[in-house]
Amino acid sequence: MTFERAWVLALLVLPLAWMLFEWRRTRRTIALLLKTLTIIAIVLALAEPKLTIPETKMAVAVLVDTSASIAPQDLARASELATALDNSRGRHWIRVLPFARSVRNLAPEEQQRGWHFKYTAGEEGRGTDLEAAVREAITSLPSGLVPRLVLISDGKENAGSITRATWQAQNLGIPIDTIPLEGKPQPGLHLESVSLPTVAFTGEKFPIDLNVSSPANVSASVEISAEGKPLGSNPVPLEKGSNQVRVHASLTEAGVLNLAGAIRAGSLGEIRFDRAMTLRRPKVLYLSQDPEGTETNLMQTLTAAQFDVERSNDPAHGDLASYQLLVLNNLDLEGLPASRKDEIEKFVKEGGGLLVIAGERNIYNDTKTAEDALDRTMPAKLAPPRSPEGTAVVLIIDKSSSMEGRKIELARLAAIGVVDNLRPVDQVGVLIFDNSFQWAVPMRRAEDKALIKRLISGIVPDGGTQIAPALTEAYRRVLPSRATFKHIVLLTDGISEEGDSLDLSKEAAARHVTISTVGLGQDVNRAYLEKVATVANGKSYFLNEPAGLEQILLKDVMEHTGSTAVEKTLRPIVGKNAEILDGVGIDSAPALKGYVKFIAKPTSDTILKVDQKDPLLVRWQYGLGRAVVFTSDAKSRWAADWVTWKGFDRLWTNIFRDLFPHAEVGEAKVEYDSASGDLVVNYQLGRDVAQPPKAPNIFALGPGGFQHPMPITELADKSYRGRIHIGQQQGLFRIRPLEESRAFPEVGYYRQEQELLDYGSNKFLLRSISEFTGGRFNPAPSQVFESGRRSEASTLRLWPGLLALALALNLAELIMRKGKAVVDAIFSKPAASPA
């Protein structure tokens, strides 16, 4: 026994002297003795006595290898061993520590009703560091108990040095028992190559091509995962020899990701691979002259399919090089500027995707003599109207006195321009009005154009403005005409009573007669003219100056009479079974209500047809890109029943993804220089990518918190190189600019960890660890807790017991002194009061 404060023992003389002094003066010697012993116990407690005793209780830390090199059956065996050790612990202390690159915390599901270990996820699971695990286990052991470590592993370390940790354990007198796991068997399969596309987009199903060599015919499975999350498993039959295997995957997250695969073939084992996969979110430029909101269903479909869509009403909007896909929805294709058509052709030739969605604005131009750039790019061209009845046009011209001068002159020229563009089979009439109306040119075929133009030239302004009667007369005369298209154009510069014009417009629309209105100057009833045109499926135009009247009038007439649109109920016919139709269920598609006549080019693919002649969905390859024409629409006019059809989303998603570019305009390539331990990135800018004045700030990000700026050097015109030292670090490295850059895109490189290439176990290393530290090799769970005559010197501190003894002695003395009086006070009867 030893004392922390031995000098306090000198104070024992005082209670002993006091007892001797009081012994002869008191009759309560037992109470005196108890009081003296109380003081002596307190003094001894203040001296803090300690008693050293041998302790045989053990403290065992169990290290369980859960790295990627462990086979599933080994992980199950490790769980059984940990459960058996836990059941055999008795009074001993035990702690279970799973590890891979380092020791990790246990997951709740791993310790429910016994041990059920899971693999260490992510980058931490792609390495085995026995040194770090043993050092962590040593620090976790409590003092005062007999220490021991149990290492359950395949012994295939690829980080750290177990030799250093073993030396530390041996110096501390901590034996390490080792229990070997068999590890993954050497596979009979051999992975010759892995091929991924250089460009992939979020939501796209991209191919993964594998070249696998097998020693025999066998059934195998290919499991693909990304960032540790399984994407699916595909069964594949393997024949003896070399096999070309293709599987597909789809990811929704943009950036550089770790794409991993495992090929399992029963007794032939498994082989794994890891690659860096770069995915980008596709950008779509959607050009449309439809009112916003009419394409809501299509826009929602594209958003759900991971597309970034930029919409504009301006056909010249945007630099096409900034997008992957271009959509022309219900545009007058002939009205696009020649320079824009050239841009579109170049965009598709260099890998972009073009989708043309037809609509009622498509106008056939029979004066065109040669194909332009857009015609060359599209897989189909607009068909001329095939109508033996031709078209019927009535021009209603306001000849009131306010039209005098330049207005009536330009109105006459505009009417003559319309006549010049009509075919002999077409019918035309010119109705003039003021307070009344009269036919300047009665309804007739446009055969004698010279006579018609002379009649128009004789129109003289005079009188007031009464629109409704003239509109009624024009409708009455055009309705019985034998014509495919019947169109009325009202031109006025004044205000008139509405009359029954709106009812007439509704009736005209129901009977396929269109009405457009043109208002000249400020003194017009704008709301009235807009309503008339809108209700009758026409258009309204308003000009402050009459200078543009001729072009407006001609364009309107041609749009409403020269269109190749066909409004009829139709059901799509499959012309070619293509991947675009996968999962769509086109057989269940409802009817469309119209389309535009196109002629498919000979080398194009007609996937859907209206009938044996007219295409509905046609595509082709043009240069490095693709172009598609859909001859109906994707809104609530002709596709009113399609937008609620369950196959609508899948069809349009497939069409858009089919147009993804599969060639880069530039190149960004990453390599590992094994001689220097550097990661080298080469950037080659494309022809259409503007060379920046200086390279952007680029960073390299890697495992273990690796983050360093990468210096960029210009090698030549539009050629750059970056270099960063990573040494022997393994895993996924991302090289990305601080801000998104088309010239310097984000790229990645995966340096394969040795962990995934390790097979079998290193039993020699495990046995050496046990022998060097005095542990056992492959012991039974019950043997782990046999101390083998080992004990640990344990210190028992006696002062708490001495204080408890002092308290008990003091209480005993108090009871002896006061106990009888207390008992008498409780149990004695109260004295009787005097009478």
Strand content: 25-35%
Query: CATH topology of the largest domain, what is it called?
Result: Rossmann fold
What structural category arises from helix and sheet content? Answer: alpha/beta
Q: Uncertain runs with pLDDT below 50, 5 residues or more?
A: none
Radius of gyration: 46 Å
Largest sheet: 8 strands, mixed
Can you offer a commentary on this structure?
This protein has 6 domains: 2-52 and 796-818, no CATH class; 57-180 and 760-790, von Willebrand factor, type A domain (Rossmann fold, 3-Layer(aba) Sandwich); 190-276, Immunoglobulins (Immunoglobulin-like), CATH 2.60.40; 283-385 and 566-658, 3-Layer(aba) Sandwich (Rossmann fold), CATH 3.40.50; 391-562, von Willebrand factor, type A domain (Rossmann fold, 3-Layer(aba) Sandwich); 667-755, Sandwich (Immunoglobulin-like), CATH 2.60.40. The two termini are 71 Å apart. It is an alpha/beta fold and 835 residues long. It is elongated, with a radius of gyration of 46 Å. The chain has an 8-stranded mixed beta sheet with strand order 16-15-17-18-32-31-30-27, with helices on both faces. Strand 21 (427-433) and strand 22 form a beta hairpin. It has 17 helices and 41 strands.
